TrEMBL record:
Molecular function via GO: 6-phosphogluconolactonase activity
GO terms under cellular component: cytosol
Organism: Vibrio casei
Keywords: Carbohydrate metabolism, Glucose metabolism, Hydrolase
Source species taxonomy: Bacteria, Pseudomonadati, Pseudomonadota, Gammaproteobacteria, Vibrionales
Protein's name according to its UniProt entry: 6-phosphogluconolactonase
Length: 342
């Protein structure tokens, strides 16, 4: 019986590793896909039918069909004007958004009826070290708006110490919203973000100062910073080097990966306020870059950027604590992890 299929992007070996994970958390190789360059962010469509990846130095956007067994078949390749450091799909499934850390940009690509992502029709520039992008559905939608217009696009700009907020217009272009940005502390470097199922709580990690930020949406509606909490102990010598952040579907636990210490931080989440409490730090793969939770929240899979391995951990349903199950060798410098069920 297959619990999940795990996708791992390995830029230095120009490969996508596709692993089958059994009910015991043990990995088996399903497929190794050679990519036409260094592959970094990977994103999966809402219906788990397609996977999108970008490569460099010859910038391109690759579209793959996910077969019934989880294997990948390339179905399209589109040119890109910039590289990508992160990607997500908007709430309608029509648009792929890609942030560019190296080229300080955010681009928008239409996904056609065949599931193929097109070259960007919009590129927003002058976003210093745009590290990640996330789409959040409106909790107080205006009924006259189309579904496309009922979302906010968050873009974390590490070099600007802020998170930019955008809205879609009805033509599929990003515009500034009434609330255009969330400022963070100078030198903090906001990096990756996640949201709870309600969409009312947003969490972001600062790569450079060791903090997790909790934003809550009020009824105006505006986003307000309500909590700042360190993901490292007070005696940590640094430098801080956070990488990724994810939340369980039931919004009870949140995890952060930190590469200098090679740890995963576990937080509990208050069911009423959404506030975080640090529970423990767990030693994990060397320089944990990317990780993901399985759709059923039973497993967490973490990639070690400097260990060239992935590790599976069973998630305790009561405490959120992690128990290692298996390690598996992958390609060079694994960065992104995505998991589907089959």
């Amino acid at each position: 019986m297959v619990v999940a299929v795990v996708y791992v992007s390995c830029p230095n070996s120009c490969q996508l590793h596709v692993l089958r994970m059994g009910i015991d958390g043990v990995f088996d190789v399903l497929q190794i896909v050679e990519t036409p360059g260094e592959v970094q962010p990977i994103t999966i469509s809402h219906d788990q039918s397609f996977l999108y990846a970008t490569v460099r130095p010859e910038f391109a956007l690759l579209s793959y069909k996910i077969e019934s067994d989880g294997k990948l078949t390339e179905i399209g390749r589109s040119s890109m004007p910039v590289s990508a450091s992160s990607s997500c799909i908007d709430i309608t499934g029509q648009y792929l958004l890609l942030s560019s850390y190296a080229q300080n940009a955010l681009s928008v690509s239409h996904i056609n009826s065949h599931g193929i992502a097109q070259s960007p029709h919009q590129v927003l520039e002058h976003l210093t070290k745009a590290h990640s992008v996330m789409a959040v559905a409106d909790q107080y939608p205006i009924k006259s708006n189309s579904i496309l217009e009922q979302q906010t696009i968050f873009c974390a700009c590490l070099g600007d110490d802020k998170i930019n907020l955008y809205r879609f217009n009805h033509n599929g272009y990003l515009i500034k919203g009434a609330q255009s940005k969330l400022m963070t502390k100078m030198g903090s470097g906001p990096r990756h973000m996640t949201q709870d199922a309600s969409g009312k709580n947003i969490y972001a990690i600062n790569e450079l100062d060791g903090d997790v930020l909790h934003f809550v949406q009020d009824e105006k509606p505006r986003w307000q910073l309500t909590q700042t909490l360190s993901y490292m102990p007070v005696d940590f010598a640094g430098p801080f080097w956070a990488a990724d952040i994810h939340i369980t579907k039931d919004a009870r636990f949140l995890y952060v990966s930190e590469r200098t210490s090679s740890t995963l931080a576990l937080f509990s989440i208050d069911s009423l306020s959404g506030e975080l409490t640090l529970i423990e730090l767990l030693d994990t793969e060397l320089a944990p870059r990317g990780f993901a939770l399985s759709p059923d929240n039973i497993w967490l899979v973490c990639a070690g950027q400097h260990s060239n391995h992935v590790a599976s951990y069973q998630v305790d349903n009561e405490s959120g604590k992690l128990t290692i199950a298996h390690r598996h060798s992958v390609g060079d410098e694994p960065m992104w992890v995505r998991i589907i069920t089959r």
